[in-house]
Amino acid sequence: MSDADSSAAASPLSAAAAPGAALAEDWAPTATRERLVQRARLISEVRAFFAEREVLEVETPVLGQAGSTDVGLASLSLSAQLPGERERVPLWLQTSPEFHMKRLLAAGSGPIFQIARAFRDGEVSRRHNPEFCMLEWYRPGMSLEALMTETCELIRRVMALGAQLTGQPSLLNESQGAQARPAITPYRALFRRVLALDPFTASLEELRAACARECEVAADDWSHETCLDAVMSLVIEPTLGSGAQGAGAQGRGSQGIGAQGQATVELVTEYPAAQAALARKHQDSEGDWVASRFEAYVAGIELANGYDELTDASEQAARFAEDNAARVAQGLPEVASDQRLVAALQAGMPAGSGVALGLDRLIMLALGERDISAVIAFPATRA
């Protein structure tokens, strides 16, 4: 917090409510007025970034007749009375505006972006809220490599403005100019460097042993993918974009935001094909099939997830079916898949790349905060 924050007169919008505040004060926002003003300024900067590039801002529904089949996401749903329907129709709060935006792309929208409300059940922490602000944009005809560069430019621009607004040094290493080439590391290289094992060829026994050793958990009944996810999230991710010399340099469990001026924007590429989600796939230099996607990290925090977008309707329908089969196998409820998206792909969505970025998290980092409740007015606990 800046000096201006600590010295402001006490009021619901001049000082964030203390943790564990009495119920009588529970009505107050968790963000100070100064942080809300700064948040608005940063969002304006995001819009300026895309206006300069002639990317159209769009709005799509928060409620849809299909949800996300992704096994790793828990969708929220409700029912509503729709015209022409005798029974109430189940609707899903969107985990991302992706499906509707892709339908716009198929209809000829050209490059588009959206600052959207998204919803995911069970995600509550210093970096999560069940309702959050997602920035998503799509670039028809743009390569994944070009989108990676653009994503880094946006992150650096917002981080630089945040430092100006707070009067504090940026978390990012300012020797990395706005146009600097991002640090890019393949998924396989991270595992080899940190754990001395290859995630594509390691046996299940080796992966379970790595989880037990590095994550200090009993992983005897874990699957291959569960082991990879655990090691990535608990061991490798906290070091990414930290400015340390090589992933793993901070040691296991290093979850803190790094020192000011030390962090970098780091991109991870070539995830296993099983983690492709809605991205295309390609073979890497060692002949293994990998996802044509990237994730962007700053100070150990995942900010963005970008894809070379899947445009094949049959493949998309098959992935929806595979997701729901996996959900059933894990005892999770099936989710209505978006057949209108499949139809849009059949009609012809242009090839290109797209990315989703957690805007609340980026604003949190840009303003030097450690909890997203400091940059949103009312988190779920006070909604």
Description of the structure:
- The chain is α+β, with helices and mostly antiparallel strands and 383 residues long.
- The chain has one domain (3-60, 97-311, 349-382): BirA Bifunctional Protein, domain 2 (2-Layer Sandwich), CATH 3.30.930.
- 33% of the residues lie in helices and 18% in strands.
- The chain has helices at 3-7, 33-52, 98-106, 144-166, 187-195, 204-214, 224-236, 313-329, 339-348, 359-366; strands spanning 56-57, 63-64, 76-80, 89-93, 112-119, 131-140, 183-186, 265-269, 281-283, 289-291, 293-298, 301-308, 352-358.
- An eight-stranded mixed β-sheet has the order 1-5-6-13-12-11-8-7, with helices on both faces. It has a three-stranded antiparallel β-sheet with strand order 2-4-3, with no helix packed on it. Strands 9-10 form a two-stranded antiparallel sheet.
- Strand 11 and strand 12 form a beta hairpin.
- The two termini are 24 Å apart.
- The model is unreliable at 1-11 and 245-256 (pLDDT under 50).
Name a few traits of the molecule.
single chain; 383 residues; alpha+beta; BirA Bifunctional Protein, domain 2; eight-stranded mixed β-sheet; disordered N terminus
Structural class: alpha+beta
Query: Strand percentage, roughly?
Result: 15-25%
Envelope shape:
globular
The helicity comes to 25-40%
Architecture, CATH level 2?
A: 2-Layer Sandwich
Q: Summarize the main sheet.
A: 8 strands, mixed
Query: Total strand count, please?
Result: 13
CATH topology, by name, is BirA Bifunctional Protein, domain 2
N- to C-terminal separation? 24 Å
CATH homologous superfamily designation: Bira Bifunctional Protein, Domain 2
Secondary-structure element sequence? Answer: HHEEEEHEEHEHHHEEEEEHHEH
Mean of residue pLDDT values: 89
- What's the domain count? 1
Task: Please tally the helical runs, counting DSSP H or I stretches of 4 or more residues.
Answer: 10
Which regions are unreliable across 5 or more consecutive residues at pLDDT < 50? 1-11, 245-256
Q: Rg from C-alpha positions? A: 21 Å
